[in-house]
Amino acid sequence: MRTRALVALAVMTIPHQGFAQPATAERPNVVMIYCDDMGYGDLGCFGATAYATPNLDRMAAEGARFTDFYVSSAVCSASRSALMTGCYHERVGIRGALGPKSKVGLAHSETTMAEMFRSAGYATGMAGKWHLGARPSQAPIRHGFDEFLGLPYSGDMWPHHPERPKDYPDLPLIEGDRPAVADVTADVQKSLTTRFAARAVDFIRRKKDGPFFFYLAPNMPHVPLFVRDENAGKSGAGAYGDVIREIDEAVGSILVTLRDEGLDDRTLVVFSSDNGPWLSYGDHGGSAGPLREGKGTSYEGGVRVPFLARWPGRIPAGLVQRQPAATIDLLPTFAAIVGARPPIAAIDGLDVRPLLFGEPDARSPHDALFFYYADGQLQAMRSGPWKLLFPHTTRTMQGQAPGRGGVPGKYRDLPVGLELYDLGADVGESRNLAPERPEVVARLQQSADAMRARLGDRLAGREPAEARPAETATD
Ligand code: MG
Predict the structure, then answer these.
(1) Is the pTM of this model over 0.85?
(2) What residue ranges define each of the domains in the chain, with the CATH number in brackets?
(3) Rg (CA), the chain
(4) C-alpha–C-alpha distance, residues 28 and 233, integer Å
(5) pLDDT in tens, 204-261
(6) Is 76 a catalytic residue?
(7) 177-192 mean pLDDT
(8) What pLDDT is stored for residue 21 in this prediction?
């Protein structure tokens, strides 16, 4: 009788045919850390040498490091919409970086990662930069998070902007959907990385009986750079090094909390960044390491980001995963891990558990990954070792005077042709093989055409058949 009742209960709680819900003990807590404008080369475990990142390096040593991990687009809001929905940003209509006065935000009809976790019985919390809608009706607590402390948009969109101070209203710090601080000052900015991490630690302690999902989105190392006074000068590598050091310290505080609460083996921690380094800021911007260009471009330096994942006992320690994967894959992968129902509407991400768990000979489930930028331009794609860029105009700092001390230099336009690179041999995208390998270009073009039919392409004059609109707030 008892068995039958349990079976009946199990059937009732299986939310979707084919998605057996794992027992609660096997369902991990998830902490997802998503930095702002951190470059591919900014961590010790990704080659940085000017300063130390011991906690992040430990995450890599005890878990997995993905060498070929991508965002949807090399800019804040677009990238975050993809992370939250498992969709290319073009599918959910979020482009660029939303400004304080914009009423555009992520549509409530989209299923966010937080809503997915909540549907599986998880407590959900967030601290940090949201950037998917600035109005109260668009706050994270209206998109599946039980609680939120953070900034509605970027920390440079404030009255102290080095070039356009008059463009921006006071920057609020939001608790729930109301300002906790109406006018964030430089002193408040200095506290934010630590404050957001402290909220994560507090949430973990409160929800330790689990399961829980916490999204920590530090607004650093995006300019303007700030650390606590006692951390200024500690890295020995300038303001940027100090900021990375403080982020590393924040990650350390979370790892220590998980250990102290006995949650290590029951918690998946992932770490990544929303786009590459903002190169016009020079010494206040990060490094793309060996990659070409940075934020705001579809070269690798814009769209390839660091990615770490740690889940002791489940993810092999020291795994180096070289297969391509992307932020769009996290929602469906997490859904599969926790046995949650995936969104009903079409998404672009795929379950990459075999890559995450280091299964032998695991292959990327993507034939190709696509990179849209600006007003719906399909600027580039990655397929196997190949990167193909389509003709468009991008920006570069090559030959330009670099920014200094928080004041940016000026980009110049850079025309991009039809360019094919073999990333296996030429990760810096320096030798265009398009003239030599027309058969590869033709094959990739065919795949791009299929994507153009689905999500459109301004460069090719194609309208999307499947794109869903963002929402405009009425409050
Ligand atoms: Mg960013």
Answers:
(1) yes
(2) 29-356 (3.40.720.10), 369-472 (3.30.1120.10)
(3) 21
(4) 38
(5) 999 999 999 999 999 999 999 999 999 999 999 999 999 999 999 999 999 999 999 9
(6) yes
(7) 98
(8) 52
Catalytic residue among 35, 89, 131, 143: 131
In degrees, rounded to 5, the angle at the alpha carbon of residue 127 between the alpha carbons of residues 124 and 131 is: 105
User: Quick check: 337 and 92 in contact, CB under 8 A?
Assistant: no
d(CA 44, CA 225): 20
Could you give the CA distance from residue 1 to residue 9 in angstroms, rounded to a whole number? 12
Out of 76, 284, 366, 392, which one is annotated catalytic?
A: 76
Tokens 């300063």 belong to residue: 51
Map tokens 């906790």 to a residue: 180
Kind and range of the H or E run holding 260:
helix 238-260
Tell me the CA–centroid distance for residue 301 and ligand 1, in Å.
Answer: 13
Distance from Cα 24 to the centre of ligand 1, integer Å? 35
Q: Please say if 161 is a catalytic residue.
A: no
9-30 residue pLDDT tens? 433 333 444 445 555 447 999 9
Residue 23 Cα to ligand 1 middle (Å): 37
State in Å: Cα 431 to ligand 1 middle.
Answer: 28
